Structure formats: C-alpha cells, structure tokens
Amino acid sequence: MMQFKIGIGWKACYDDERNLYTAKTSDRGDFHLYEINAEIYNQLGEPGTDADELIRFGRHLYYSEDSPIGPPTDMVIDENYAELCSWADIQRSGRVMPKALTDIAVDLWENEATREQRNKQRKGK
Questions:
Q1: Residues 54-102: tens digit of each pLDDT
Q2: What pTM value is reported for the model?
Q3: Do strands 59-65 and 30-36 pair parallel, antiparallel, or not at all (unpaired)?
Q4: 43/45 Cα distance (integer angstroms)
Q5: What distance lies between CA 17 and its chain's CA centroid?
Q6: How far, in Å, CA of 65 to CA of 38, rounded?
C-alpha cells in the first residue's frame, strides 16, 4: 500500500510493500524525482520545514527542465526512475541528455548518495 504526503510543489510516497520512500518536486517547468529516506519523509509537511530543501538531500533519480532559456531536456540519473516512482505522473520533454553529460552533471552538482549510485551503475554493479 502506498501512503502519500502532498504540499505545494512536492509530493512524497512511502511504498510499504517495497519499503521505499520517493518524492517529486516541480516548479516553473522543472520536474525532479528523488529516492528519500524515512527521516526525510517523516519531516515533510511539518511547520517551518522547507520540503524542497529536505527532498534534495535524497538520491536524485530524474530531472526534466522546460525553461525559456534553452530547449526542454530530460536527465536520466537512475535508469530505474519510472519503476521506483511508479506513482508519479512523469514529465518528459522527449529530449534526453546524453549519459556522458549526465555523468558530468552528477559529478558537479549532486550529493554523495547520487554520485555513489551513478558510479555503481557506470561500473555495472
């Protein structure tokens, strides 16, 4: 059974069958999917808590950008994003960033959990 928490610009899910916590954020054409932990999930929706900031501590799975600055682009960080976030209506631009550029972006901008998982995927583990 899936349990949800919802706020302005975010939604989080706990899937008790898989013991999996995931979340999505969206704002002004940006759409992100994350795997989060129980600690983050439990804090979401609490007064004075910045949900977007908390969720960003999770492992980034997918990113879609549709901004006026450049062409719409998707960045697939974890190839299993759709399975992990099966509950989410996933925004897709249809234009996927090449894996090499995604690796560079992850190395530059992402947290350690995201980098470690991406490195495991690259090494085939």
A1: 999 999 999 998 877 778 889 999 999 999 999 999 888 888 888 888 8
A2: 0.83
A3: antiparallel
A4: 6
A5: 20
A6: 27
